[in-house]
Amino acid sequence: MSRLGKLSSLLLLLLFVTLLSGTAQAGLLDVGPVVPEVNLSTEPNLGHGFPLWYRDANRLPLQLCTDRASGMCLTAEPNPGLTQRFPDNMGDELFWWVGDASIPIPQQGALDRDGEAILVQAIEAAFSTGDVVSGAQVSFARIRIRIDTPYAGVYLVTTPFKQFTFTVAPDLIDDGINHTEDIGIAEGGVFTGALNGSVGPFLYCTNAPIIVNGQSFVGDPNQPCSVRGSTFPSAENPSNFFRVQGPNGFDIQTDQFSVMGKLYLDPIPTPLDVGKVAYTRQASGVRINAFATTQALSNQTVPSAPFPANFALTGAASVVEVTAGDLPTLETSTNNPADGKFFGSTPLIPNLGTLPATATVTNSSDIPPTVRVVPLVDDVALESAMFNPVNNILIVSAASYDQVAAPALSLYMPGMDAPLGTLVDGKISVTFPVSDTTVDPVKTFNIPPEKVTVVSALGGSDTRSVTGLSPFAVLPTGTIVINGGAEFTNSATVTLTLSAASANGPVTQMQFSKDGTTWLAVEPFASTKVLTLLAGNGLKRVYVRYLDAAGKLSEIISAPITLDTVRPSGTMVINGGAPLTGNSIVNLTLSATDANGVTSMQFSNDGINYFSPVPYDTAVSLNVLPGDGVRTMLARFIDAAGNTSEPVSASTTLDTTKPTGTIAFSTPNPSNLPYGVMTLSAADASGVTQMQFSRDGINYLAFEPYATTKSMTLLPAGDGVKTIYVRFKDAAGNVSDPLSASITVETIKPTGTIAFTTPDPSNLPYGVMTLSA
Questions:
Q1: Which tens digit of pLDDT belongs to each residue from 37-76?
Q2: Which of 193, 197, 287, 705 is least surrounded, with the fewest CB atoms within 10 Å of its CB?
Q3: Are residue 734 and residue 686 in the same domain, yes or no?
């Protein structure tokens, strides 16, 4: 195919269009550690300076194929008869994976002989110098296409990883298609670029794995095979073939590939990056804090699964633990398992004694467990690093959280091995220019670095960017709020909410006073603080001033609060003092006093459980407990400071039973009188106090004092049956059911006749009369 070697500016344009039209799916997952170079090392321990393996999206790892004894790795040593050795007898090209294919093209069209279509696919190792040179190792993902084209026009080339479209012009038909895609070449030991290429997941022969001399391979490069592994255009519709389609019905295809690749079978640990394992220590004990990052899932697989599923993860989550000396094992946790970020903090551990020098961080879910041993250092916070360009002073504030050892802190900057100085009371000022006299010639730094680092004598460190400032003329400002802004408190211990800011940089310290004159010790700035007020009731004030990293002190800021520890007092009366009530709802009359005002009150009707507080009022209606008998209400009054009075009580007797009684006329019945006299009787546990009468059972006269007799005019006037109704009321106000008595009134005189039946005149001394009425 000598024609394929010709390149012209038009072909370069053609290839540019080809690259734009190709589509692919990322198929490589990660790359393994670099095998250190070992001069004159030989197989099987060849120290070649390349990554140990590349792994595809199916988690299939392939190591650099250098195994000449198996015949399954194609190498090209300068002296094949001698042992493969780095660097003097090692080929300038090696491969982690190869998947090549070729298709013969019978003579046709513009071809004056038989042609060929060639596909080269590889993850390749080479040297940027061309020859094998230490430190010149590079890797890349390659797809190369060579096609003798019989016709001018558009060709569609389908590979297992992507699809290409080439346009062959009539005047360039003899040049054919000549395309190479090499992605990932980078010097300086950077081997991640190949992950961005089009190659992957790896193709493997349908009979893989092929085991030779105890080693496992995904194919035999000496024997073409059918393959699996393509996920283009999808895993459900893979392109496990090489196909070329062109003008005039040109269509050739093969599913036979020469595949090379040696499986890496040792366990691959899950990446485990330990941010830090640091401690904080105070007199009461030690606390260990650990930060680590790993993959969400551990490396657990199912080795017994069929190839290549035996490389797939089981889904077992990573479990990160930290141990250090005799300390209890620290279990870490994560906000979101998918991000793989883990954190753990021990409880405060008292009386620890000597701290261990190192900590072991373990992903215990890995098989075998992945382990990192790191120094156990003190936690250091570099709070601010500010440079004033007016006076060329760099001011740095930092602290170690080991308050027991209080280690020395030193300031470092890039480019200078010696420290700039030691911090005093957590601060250091450095004036530029600075000269490094530990080197020859002396090196002078006229300007501050972008970042500085504070290092503790116990190993902890922190780095922070340097902030450039205007002259420190502005004072810090801030606020102070006591108990969330409350006006009163009944406890001398209060919580302060604090805020502060400064144009000069962070506010680093604060200082308090309870009287505005005597100040407590300066302490690190915090957004909250618990403080005890001066003793005694009355108006109190807390004063604060803030100090920034530039050493500027704010004006004094204060907030008031009234301390009141005296309970309110009060009284309560039920129903105006009435001893009895017939209603379970009673009216309470209340009064309470307090120097700072009564704000709320709460009640109990059982002497044990109190209702929720309600706003203070002088009158309120509440239910007593059900059932007749003596009922007692309790009240407590609460003032503005939250002080609660001693309970006050009041009692009444609840009587809900109606009186009983009788009514009867003592007047003869019937009667010709226009009135009647009644005899009454009534009884009730609370005593009957009143009665009321009605002549129709509907309309009642007003209540009157209870009596045992009563005379009433009988209405309506005239003869007939007259009924009087009565109701009795007891001392609790209960009214009886109506009782009644009836009487008949008759006022019409009788009529009649009288006549003697004795003869008239009669000589008898008596007479006999006949009467009628």
A1: 999 999 889 999 999 999 999 999 999 999 998 999 999 9
A2: 705
A3: yes
Contact criterion met (CB below 8 Å) for 189 and 174: no
The Cα 467–Cα 502 span in angstroms is: 13
**Residue 68 shares a structural domain with residue 177:** yes
- The verdict on residue 36 lying in a domain is yes
User: How far is C-alpha 15 from the geometric centre of its chain's CA atoms?
Assistant: 51
Pull the structure tokens for residue 376: 């156990």
Closest CA relative to residue 508, chosen from 380, 383, 381, 382: 383
> Among the residues of 109-166, which ranges form H helices?
none
Closest by CA to 661, choosing from 683, 693, 689, is: 683
Is the model's pLDDT at 327 over the cut of 50? yes
- Same domain for 537 and 574, yes or no, is no
- Report the alpha-carbon distance of residue 313 to residue 297 in Å, rounded: 8
Q: Domain containing 716 — which CATH number? A: 2.60.40.10
Q: How far apart are CA 258 and CA 708, in angstroms?
A: 129
pLDDT tens digits, one per residue of 511-545 = 999 999 999 999 999 999 999 999 999 999 999 99
Q: Phi first, then psi: what are they for 618, rounded to 5°?
A: -90, -10
If one counts every other C-beta atom within 10 angstroms of the C-beta of residue 614, the result is: 11
The strand ranges marked E within 57-108 are: 61-63, 94-105
Q: Which residues contact 153 (CB under 8 A, 6 or more apart)?
A: 167, 168, 246, 247, 248
Structural domain including 342 reads 272-299+310-377
Query: How far from chain centre, in Å, is Cα 597?
Result: 43
The SS3 of residue 16 is helix
Q: Which of 183, 151, 198, 281 is nearest to 21 (CA)?
A: 198
- Quick one: 12 and 161 in the same domain? yes
Q: Structure tokens of 95?
A: 């491969």
Note whether residue 156 is domain-resident: yes
In a domain, 672, yes or no: yes
Alpha-carbon 432 to chain mean position:
45
Q: Are 483 and 564 in contact (CB under 8 A)?
A: no
Both structure tokens of 64: 């650099």
| Mean pLDDT of all residues belonging to the chain | 92
509 vs 545: CA distance, rounded Å = 9
Contact 6, 174 (CB under 8 A): yes
Three-state secondary structure call for residue 575: helix
Place of tokens 């040049």: 175
User: Which two tokens mark 438?
Assistant: 């530990």
Give 349-372 as a 3 state SS string: ECCCCCCCCEEEEEECCCCCCEEE
529 and 591 fall within a common domain: no
Q: Is residue 213 part of a domain?
A: yes
pLDDT in tens, 663-720: 999 989 898 898 989 999 999 988 999 999 999 999 999 999 999 999 999 888 888 9
Q: CA-CA distance, 289 to 274, in Å (whole number)?
A: 12
Number of structural domains found in the chain:
6
Q: Which of 654, 680, 703 is the last residue of a domain?
A: 654
With 0-12 / 13-18 / 19 or more C-beta atoms within 10 angstroms meaning exposed / middle / buried, residue 704 is: exposed
Are 193 and 30 spatial neighbours (Cβ–Cβ below 8 Å)?
A: no
Same domain, 199 and 277: no
Model pLDDT, residue 752: 84
Last residue of a domain, one of 533, 563, 593: 563
CB 160 within 8 A of CB 99: yes
Span between the terminal Cα atoms of the chain, in Å: 165
Partners of 51 in the beta sheet? 34
Task: Using alpha carbons only, give the angle 101, 107, 111 rounded to the nearest 5 degrees.
Answer: 95
